[in-house]
Amino acid sequence: MDAKDILGLPKVSLPVQLEKKSRPQKDSQRKPDGISREVYALTGGVAPLMPSIDVNQLKKRPQTENEKITWEWLSFTNSARKDDLKLYHWVRVVNGTPPTGDYSFAKYNKSVDVIKYTDEEYEKHLTDPTWTREETDQLFDLCERFDLRFVVIADRFPTSRSVEELKNRYYSVSRAILIARAPSPADVSGHPLVKEPYNISQEIERKRALSMVLSQTKQQERKDAEILTEAKKIMESRMAAKAAQDAELAVTSNTNPEDIEKTTAPVETASPSNIQANSSVAPLMSMADNAAAAAASLRTLRVYLRTYALDQMVQAASSSAGLRTIKRVEQFLQELKVNLKPKVPTKAVCAEHLELRKEILTLLNLQKLLQHKEEGSSYREGSYTETPDTPKRGIDQDRTFVPDSVSFGAISTERVGKKDHKRKGPGREAPSSPAQSNKRPRKLKATDS
């Protein structure tokens, strides 16, 4: 039994007409020329990333119809040689016409222009007690022949001369001739032989050090590596200790010298002269601390301009002074005809300039201190001469006690007298209570207040 039997439907299936959906027609794309069918199927008609060019569309090399190319065994000469030697090689010949011109590799022949000198120039500028005229002529001939290959020249030289001696003689003679022929030394100052003269001692030391390095064994190389590592560790530890020391110095330099003086110095009598003297001495004491702090901060930079270092040291030396003092220092420098900033800031010049500024600042502070001392002494003398009969009042001077006849505290003498009069009078009343009868007047002392 199925669903048709339950619903009472015939089991014969009825024909059902299905509507066919029309599929959209694909646009037929023609495969471009020059691309294979497999590659075009992989791309799916998408434009390629790189433009594809058909080989047939490239420009073909023009060919002449009547061109005949042959190879022939021909002779040639080299312009770099002076003996007119003839050699042979294969040459490409077009239409029976061999190529003309110089040998193609002759352009790579480079020669050194060795300076020539005359007899007069040699006698005037090139005489040397360790070299003769014949040795110098032979040296320059070999230099021109072997293009300054001094190892070959030393091997061919007739006398026993080292390579360094040959180099020193050649370059010294060339340099002397260049300077002698020039109208002025400034015209040849940029020439390499004049600008960087040959140093024979440095060359000998360099070769000696190089030979020592090349002759070391593996054991010595390992030992040197260990020494370098130990030296690196020592340098790192010293740098760390130095940085910590600089930090402590910076902290201590920031403290005020006046506060330290207050805690350590005994208490003195306050007077205008003492206050002014302390304020004048404080810049002198803090000047060295500020300079040390500036030097420590510069050491942390490792690399800095000397003009920047000079500015920092000047600011550190003048930090404890006011604007008026700094202006007076600059006026003092102008009076001495000294520039505020050195034109040639070498190490020695900067040190002398900074020392001069410190001395001027010290002089101004001492002048100010002397002026304060003179003002204080004149003030004391004037105060004593104006009132000679007035005694000096000190802190511990005795003071006579005068009792007050009006009142002591809250009880007056008039009130005490009235109470006594009432008690002694004939018509006084009896006390109302025992407490009032036993009450006696308190004796007054001068110490009550």
UniProtKB/TrEMBL annotation:
MF term (GO), any: transcription corepressor activity
Record-level GO cellular component terms: NuA4 histone acetyltransferase complex; Swr1 complex
Residue span, Myb-like domain: 127-176
Region (Disordered): 17-37, 372-449
Pfam name, any one: SANT_DAMP1_like
Keywords: Chromatin regulator, Nucleus, Transcription, Transcription regulation
Protein name: Myb-like domain-containing protein
Source organism (scientific name): Tagetes erecta
